[in-house]
Each structure stands twice: as structure tokens, then as C-alpha cells.
């Protein structure tokens, strides 16, 4: 773990930081995220995990982020250049690390259990706008992002590791989830990766990465953006709450909102449960490969069993969101 004062010192190497600024660690996931603040001044510092993204990959994320900010009405947090004009800075902490500094946005997070249908309707509409931009945007030749497809979740080099290595995956759970993996893979292969359903997505629009400020939604943390099915962004939106009784209503609201700004055929809606199951299996692997982070530790005791319950429902009825 990098202590907050060390992160602040690293930030000062690249950016002009007020002398009285303090740093507070606010999130530990793929990266370390700190809130830097002084009187009437706030920024968000992301200290990247070594080996997760290359510098080109990070610059690719920020290139799309800048294009979204400049070419759409979506609200996102701008990355701020350092003294050398570069958005990505480098510092040696516990290891060589990449750093990015973002503006701080207002708003509040929603929490599971709150009535969220209006939020999900707006989120669906905003997601459609994001996808529409991705479909029409000409990416730089050097653009580099990974994918969130079946190989990324189930392959031998899965991005977050093998779900079988997650805590409490018993032989019984493993046998059931192997059937789920096979079914998900078959349905994704039949669905395909046409340009109308597969492209550049945020890939992590869960509640932690959406800030509501009145009627405005701020979409933050594009760190996992990459190539995937557009419907995967709904699956990401309900991460860690897939079995909440609100989910069917939230899916209905999200689809309605999406259709206010984009096209979503019924065949695509019918695939949402498969994307939810794909995402849930990815999260199970994530918990297994991130045991040093607080959130995975908290989820670990019951996540495998919960995934198995969802998987059994999926195999029995083809649905998760019901």
C-alpha cells in the first residue's frame, strides 16, 4: 500500500499542487485513488497498478475521454496535464507507477436498496449516447485497449484470472459454473460481434462510477474501458447487486432510457441476462485475484455461492434479472 503522503509527494513531481494540500485514500481496486484537497481546491489522483495498463493504454483511455467531453453532452471528469503538458506522469513509489490527475466533480453516489428506477432510466439514456459516440469516433492509429469478451473472462489468459481460483468455489459450485460458462460462451458465439452490438464501451458503469447532481449524471472512471458488447454496460451497472429485487425494474428503466437516445432491438435486450452472467463470473475471478483489496475481502465469503444461485437460475430459465 502506498501511504497518502507518498502519493502526494509523487503528484507534486508532475503537477502544481497547493502547498497546503492533503491526500486521502478513497479507493483501492485496480488502482489506488486519492482525493487531494486544499482550501477551495480539489482533485482526484489515480495511481495506476503496475502491469495492468501500458502507458499507451492509459493514453488511449484519456484520448477517448477527451473526445467524449469535446463531442458529446456527457459529463465526465477531465484529466489535467502536468507541468510538461502530459496527461500521464511517472513516479517511482513502491514500483514505477503511472499517475493521472483528474478534476473533482460534485454529486452523490446511489446505494443498493434505494429506489433507483429514475437513475437507471437516465443512465440508460446516457449510455446510449456514449455508445453512439464510440460507433462514430475515429480512434487514433495507436489506440490500445483490452477486450471484455469471452476470452477475457474465460480464457487461459483471463484479465482478472480464473474464476475457479476464487474463494469458496467448492467442487459443487465449480461443476455448476462450468456449465454456466459453457452456456454463456455458446450464446455469445451465436450472438456475434457485429459493429451494431460490439465496440468501445465504458465496461464499469456501476454505482460507484456514477455521480448524480440533480438531473445531471457524471460518468467517471474510464479505467476499464475497452472493447465489448454494448449490453455489457448494463451488466456492469448492476455489479454486486445482481440478486437485488429491484433488478427487473431497473433493467426495464435502463432499456427505456437507452431507447430514448439509441437503438436497442429486442434481440439485444434478450442478451442482457447473458451479459450479466458473464460480468458476474468476471467479478468472481476479480475477487480471487484481488484478495489484498478491501472490497473483494468483504465480498469473498458469499460471492461464489451467490454466483452459483444466479447461475442455476440462468441455466434453468435463461434469465438472471427476474
What does it look like?
This protein has 322 residues and is an alpha+beta fold. Strands 1, 2, 3, 5, 6 and 7 form a six-stranded antiparallel β-sheet that branches. The chain folds into two domains: 4-103, 2-Layer Sandwich (Phosphorylase Kinase, domain 1); 117-317, Aminoglycoside phosphotransferase (APH), C-terminal lobe (Aminoglycoside 3'-phosphotransferase, Chain: A, domain 2, Alpha-Beta Complex), CATH 3.90.1200.10. Helix content is 44%, strand content 16%. Strand 6 and strand 7 (96-103) form a beta hairpin. The longest helix is centred in the C-terminal third of the chain and has 24 residues, at 294-317. The chain has ten helices and eleven strands.
Produce the secondary structure layout:
Layout: H1 4-14, E1 22-28, E2 32-38, E3 41-47, H2 55-71, E4 75-76, E5 79-80, E6 89-92, E7 96-103, H3 117-136, H4 150-154, H5 171-191, E8 198-201, E9 210-213, E10 216-219, E11 226-229, H6 232-237, H7 247-261, H8 266-269, H9 272-289, H10 294-317
Parallel strand pairs: 4-10
Antiparallel strand pairs: 1-2, 2-3, 3-7, 5-7, 6-7, 8-11, 9-10
Largest sheet: 6 strands, antiparallel
Unreliable stretches (pLDDT < 50, length at least 5) are none
| Element string (H = helix, E = strand) | HEEEHEEEEHHHEEEEHHHHH
Helix content: 40-55%
Strand content is 15-25%
Give the total of domains.
2
Rg computed from alpha carbons, rounded to a whole number of angstroms: 20 Å
Structural class: alpha+beta
**Number of helix segments?**
10
Looking at CATH, which topology of the largest domain would you report? Aminoglycoside 3'-phosphotransferase, Chain: A, domain 2
Level-2 CATH architecture of the largest domain: Alpha-Beta Complex
Amino acid at each position: 500500500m502506498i501511504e497518502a503522503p507518498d502519493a502526494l509527494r509523487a503528484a507534486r513531481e508532475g503537477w502544481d499542487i497547493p502547498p497546503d494540500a492533503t491526500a486521502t485514500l478513497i479507493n483501492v481496486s485496480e488502482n489506488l485513488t486519492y482525493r487531494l484537497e486544499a482550501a477551495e481546491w480539489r482533485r482526484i489522483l489515480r495511481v495506476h497498478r503496475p502491469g495492468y495498463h501500458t502507458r499507451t493504454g492509459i493514453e488511449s483511455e484519456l484520448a477517448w475521454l477527451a473526445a467524449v467531453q469535446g463531442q458529446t453532452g456527457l459529463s465526465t471528469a477531465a484529466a489535467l496535464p502536468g507541468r510538461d503538458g502530459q496527461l500521464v506522469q511517472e513516479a517511482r513509489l513502491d514500483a514505477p507507477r503511472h499517475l493521472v490527475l483528474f478534476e473533482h466533480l460534485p454529486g452523490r453516489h446511489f446505494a443498493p436498496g434505494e429506489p433507483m428506477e429514475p437513475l437507471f432510466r437516465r443512465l440508460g439514456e446516457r449510455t446510449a449516447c456514449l455508445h453512439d459516440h464510440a460507433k462514430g469516433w475515429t480512434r487514433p492509429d495507436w489506440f490500445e485497449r483490452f477486450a471484455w469478451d469471452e476470452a477475457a473472462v474465460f480464457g487461459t489468459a483471463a484479465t482478472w484470472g480464473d474464476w475457479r481460483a476464487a474463494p469458496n468455489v467448492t467442487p459443487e459450485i465449480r461443476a455448476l459454473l462450468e456449465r454456466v460458462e459453457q452456456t454463456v460462451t455458446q450464446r455469445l458465439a451465436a450472438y456475434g460481434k457485429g459493429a451494431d452490438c460490439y465496440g468501445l464501451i465504458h465496461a464499469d458503469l456501476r454505482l460507484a462510477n456514477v455521480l448524480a447532481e440533480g438531473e445531471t449524471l457524471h460518468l467517471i472512471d474510464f479505467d476499464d474501458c475497452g472493447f465489448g458488447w454494448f449490453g455489457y454496460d448494463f451488466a456492469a451497472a448492476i455489479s454486486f447487486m445482481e440478486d437485488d429485487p429491484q433488478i427487473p425494474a431497473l433493467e426495464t428503466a435502463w432499456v427505456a432510457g437507452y431507447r430514448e437516445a439509441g437503438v436497442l432491438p429486442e434481440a439485444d435486450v434478450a442478451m442482457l441476462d447473458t451479459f450479466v452472467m458473464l460480468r458476474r463470473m468476471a467479478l468472481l475471478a476479480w475477487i480471487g485475484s484481488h484478495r489484498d483489496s478491501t472490497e473483494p475481502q468483504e465480498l469473498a465469503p458469499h460471492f461464489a455461492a451467490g454466483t452459483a444461485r444466479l447461475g442455476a437460475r440462468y441455466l434453468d430459465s435463461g434469465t438472471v434479472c427476474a
